[in-house]
Amino acid sequence: MNTPEDFQKCVEAAARDPQNLGELANADAVGTAGSAACGDMIRLWIKFKEQSGKKVIDKATFQSFGCETAIAVASLATELIRGKTAEEVLAMSPEQLAPSLGPLPPVKIHCTQLVETALHSALQPQSAAKPVQVSAPAPSPSLVDKFTQPAHPGGQPKIIFKKS
Amino acid sequence: MSNSITPQSEMRQVLEMFPGAQRAVFRRYHIGGCASCGFQPDETLAGLCLRNNLDVAEVIRHIESSHQQDQEMQIAPAELAALREKGAVRLVDIRTREEFEAVRIEGAVLFSQTLMQEILGRWPREELVVIYDHIGRQSLDAAAYFLGHGFTNVRCLRGGLDAWSVEVDTKLPRYDLEYAT
Predict the structure, then answer these.
(1) Is the ipTM above a cut-off of 0.90?
(2) Which residue among A41, A110, B132, B177 sits deepest, i.e. has the most Cβ atoms within 10 Å of its Cβ?
(3) What is the sign of the dihedral through the CA atoms of B167, B171, B176 and B180?
(4) Residue B23 is nearest to which of A114, A134, A143, comparing CB atoms?
């Protein structure tokens, strides 16, 4: 069983030299998950090819912001799904996308779910697309809302310098 | 309302009792930072932990120590001034552009969506980053946000730019904000 230290080493190794990073020209499918505001956003590009009468993934690339674990998972997953059909990829669990990392700590499961969500977004027919639960909706102000949105709804404040 | 939280406490109650709880929860568990990892005010602590596969007792202990954690995130103006004399400190100003253009600490960069992506994507996670606002309220949330993203040395300026103007650089004018009613 992987220790937390083993996990961190695997993540750092995968994130240090990420595979398939960047936009893929002429991609057949694109999927996005997460929120740029959160920093945990992944976008995947997928190109298919015909192989033995089946349409399989020829190449997948990604862009990610922020989380090292999400980058590691996306790097490993984009390698792993090569040669698979869309149906085969959609049947994979988040844990199967980056098996070499071992079981993820609870706090990092969010990262594999992001990659899974982006894959579903890219590969699932729009009519059959189901929302993949990254987490529950949050009507509460998020942490990022608290420091990026105006503190007062009355518009821009006027700056009044104090007399020294 | 009791003065302690239990697994059945709703997140609304948790945040009322421990204003630093959201920062604490995001720093350690990456929950509550944005809409994709957030929670609902009527969600219980037990429900939140179950959904994220967390030990609720451990989470309660972590939240109960959140005030101390907030204290540790802050840096005093004099301490920041001393560090700036020794070497470069990345300074991030999260106030409005109007405030930034009116008065700022030399060398600070104005926070924006673009800068956030640059920080998350490119800034070394172990380097000291100090975030400041006007009076030191929102910068706690901002520092917790980046700590939750794996940055290990993010602090916020205690008392904000106003305290800096009083304690370090008295030439910087102090100001108030007046909102239209």
Answers:
(1) no
(2) B132
(3) negative
(4) A143
